[in-house]
What we know:
The protein is an alpha/beta fold and 575 residues long. It contains 19 helices and 22 strands. α9 links the parallel β14 (287-292) and β15 (310-318). α2 crosses α7 (237-253). The longest helix is centred in the middle third of the chain and has 17 residues, at 237-253.
Amino acid sequence: MQKWIGALVIIGLMAAGLAFVLRPQAPPEQVADTLFFNGKIVTMARLKSGDIGRASALAIKDGHILKLGMLQSMESLTGPQTTLIDLEGGALYPGFIEAHAHPLFAATFATAVDVAGFRYDTMDKVLAQLRAAAVTAEPDAWIFAFGFDPVLVRDYAPLTRHALDEIAPLNPVFVIEQMMHKGYANSAALAAAKLDETSVAPKGSWYGRDEEGALDGAIVETPAMLNMVSAMPSVPREGYRYLLEAQYARFRAHGYTTVVDMGEQAQFSDPYDLLAEVAHGTASPLRLRLFVDPHTHNALTDTYKNDARVSLSGVKLWVDGSPYAGGMAMDDPYMVSDITHDRLGLTPQSRGALNYEDSALSALVSELHAAGVQIAMHVQGERAVEQALNAIEAAQKAYPRADARHRLEHNALITQSQMERAAAAGVGLSFFTNHVRHYGAAVRDAIIGPERAKRFMPAGQAMDAGAVVTIHSDAPASPLDSLKELQTAVMRLADADGSVIGAKGALTPEQALEAVTTNAAWQIFAEEEIGTLEKGKRADIVWLSADPLTTPIQNWHEIEVRQVWIDGVGIPASP
């Protein structure tokens, strides 16, 4: 398939009917390292006509794109050492950009006991997984499980500390929900974290309690969750390296060459050093952009300034919580249903909660904005979006700054007027559209109701409003699957019943692909380097088995990722 050299190359090409003779005429320093041909090369760069550019051949040299065009025009750029890649009728695209994920969390959680609702959708299945882990665990060893889902488990029952005590009386147990905003601990785990009835949860989170006020094992929202994770046994740094290499390979297997890391937590002192080491290494390379908490940002400000492979983008703030833990800060209350009342434990009229007072968030955003920092804010409900936009607009008024490109993440219920304000302020919007596929039916029927579900994750309306829009998996909060994610952004189908959720929020096929290429590059100030296939840009490329733009949308999930290139270096797609 590649590396045909000399006479074999000429014979092979002529046999293919290409009538292309390799006669290097350029100086050696201008001869291509790699030439791609016999496929559809989709640049994702817009032509003057408004169409997306295409080519039939692409040459790369020293990690950058040397030329695009007709195959016949490449003869002066090729020589005996040029590697020829026959695309076999497939398609080349700019490497996909995962706009919002957590690589270190994903790497760590990949080793956890799997209780994901996507696969274990009954309590019997979940409990069987936990019991099997308890049988094989050494006494006192932690049992860590990930993916329990109160929405997708059909006969849900709470994982109380006492239920977990019965399953594993000799082991600390901690089970994290799929969305990573809630966990369940048994008595041994609570003791290890030094939590008891006198414990006060960090602001923006809480500990579940029974009718008598005793801890029931529930650990809700990010600050309290991180405290519990910190109490767990640490993994050796080299162990994390191994896990990260495998996780980076999983990203590449889905066509991602750049991943935007939206915050991590590790049990050793230099997680971002390790993230960068692995990204730069030859075993499992990746391009990373980092958003971190304010304290970490101060510590890393000078570390990745001129690093094209790994760079510090900005600060991540959590303004509200998860729709599926009761933390989405909405204008109107959650529905009263079995899911919200019995499973999530929400009281009638619950509208979720904001993690900041208005003045506190505004002060923090103004401080960061004035210092030139890019800010990404987790927002789900309308109240959270409103608070975030108010803070950004106030900061911009006090400290005018061109092209700040602040971002709002997830945006489950962002309103039309809020999308228009975001577009006017140059604020990028990134949507967690996988929610539509995995949770859309429950969102409509039991969490926010059919009227609000019509505007759930409204990526299409945001694009129409003029905002720069991306989509993301928030891995490990949803399974990595780039082509299904793109398909969902266009078709808006719920897995549970095949219904369309929020039809007006659909992206066109071209818009969906822009969301993981050109728009994602813009949101991280990387549009001059990546995001399109153009001369001089970095050779970050994905080879697909077929061109999505000429494939029926209902078949997109069948398209395979064959290989990726990062800085012109080819890396097999298999993890």
